[in-house]
Amino acid sequence: MRYSAFQVLKNALTGNTGWKPVWRNPEPKKAYDVVIVGGGGHGLATAYYLAKTYGVQNIAVLEKGYLGGGNVGRNTTVVRANYLLDGNLEFYSKSLEMWETLSQELNYNVMLSQRGVLMLGHSDGQMEALARRGNANLATGDDAVLMGLDELRAFTPYLDFDNGRFPVKGGLLQRTGGTARHDAVAWGYARGADLHGVDLIQNCEVTGFRIENGAIKGVETSRGYIGAGKVGMAVAGRSSQLAEMAGMRLPIESHVLQAFVTEGLKPLINTVISFGMGHFYISQSDKGGLVYGGDIDGYNSYSQRGNLPMVEHVAEAGMALMPMLGRARQLRSWGGIMDMSMDGAPIIDTTPVDGLFLNGGWCYGGFKATPASGAAFAHLMATGQHADYAAKFRLNRFETGHLLDDEGTGPRPNRH
């Protein structure tokens, strides 16, 4: 079924009895041409583009829980392309371009809201760095506006500009950035993949790989052995665990990242804002809740819940930026498992095992990367060649020293 205004009207007049399940729930076959491990945004997008763009017919996505139950449904929904370094610049520019037509591509409303992303500067040095970043964005073809203090006061009057500790000097605005509905992205890609014949296998945990003579032959799962000509790993914070099953050790650490939401409020924040003197970012959802987050919890973990010290840290940063937050009631928090790479940039590459491919190390950038990540990973798996816009996300850069350290914090995953 193709969704349309006509279908909405037709089903409204017939008691909503004509809607069909959004995707099938098939039993796994004995073998597939391609198996994607991970039913989040990146895995589903990869399967969709493999089927649609490259005509691969026999594909399965294996998810140990339910589709969209991992990081794709546990983030703060920010979409942006305001990176600094070559490699990241062209990749996230491509991803933002794909976001702008994704609802039409999938025939599913991902609720993209290009309300803008504002990065604040609190010192002369930070303003110079923002100017450099903005020039890099403009040179790539993306938009960037460096805002002075007076212009910023008019744009975001609710900020604490005169905070003695963190005075606001200005900011860099990317108007085409914004937010999208995270679960709608997962559902849209799942529906699109299913319509192209992809088997979406839920409650199917991969427990091992079958490798013969250095080549992948299939995967061991909680529902039995499944043969595969090619296998792609797209499991976010579980990347290291899954790679270990194949005899690999990755330059990745897993950390918890918490997110928070307040009670529903009237329209208040008109953009996405990131605090330059602390890793704090905030926006307002369509339901009115203020959605915000901060730094990763400072320890390795595979838990999807965080700790109270980080709750306090994020709340303090928010209060320093906009004291009015103290009057809002926080409803809930949740955690996602982040696969933090040593330079803060992702990995889309082949592995030493023939036929086994890796998509991981997304740090804070996973959700906004979803369309381009899926397209680039599908291109690699189908052709054996790296997409031009993802060519620098190779695993061997950690051997050669060609790192993509966009934050300039060095090989320290807990700082990225």
What does this structure look like?
By secondary structure, the protein is an alpha/beta fold. It folds into 2 domains: 25-77 and 182-251 and 343-415, FAD/NAD(P)-binding domain, CATH 3.50.50.60; 117-174 and 253-341, 2-Layer Sandwich (D-Amino Acid Oxidase, Chain A, domain 2), CATH 3.30.9. Helix content is 28%, strand content 26%. The chain has 11 helices and 18 strands. The chain has helices at residues 5-13, 41-54, 88-99, 102-106, 124-140, 149-155, 182-195, 239-245, 308-321, 370-383, 397-400; strands at 31-37, 59-62, 78-79, 117-121, 145-147, 170-174, 178-179, 199-201, 206-212, 215-221, 224-233, 252-264, 272-275, 280-284, 289-300, 330-341, 347-350, 356-360. Strands 1, 2, 8, 9, 10, 11, 17 and 18 form an 8-stranded mixed beta sheet that branches. It has an 8-stranded mixed beta sheet with strand order 5-6-4-13-14-15-12-16. The chain has a two-stranded antiparallel sheet with strand order 3-7. Helix 2 links the parallel strand 1 (31-37) and strand 2 (59-62). Helix 2 (41-54) runs parallel beside helix 7 (182-195), helix 2 (41-54) crosses helix 10 (370-383) and helix 3 (88-99) packs across helix 10. The longest helix is centred in the N-terminal third of the chain and has 17 residues, at 124-140. It is globular, with a radius of gyration of 21 Å. The two termini are 43 Å apart. The model has no long low-confidence stretch (mean pLDDT 95).
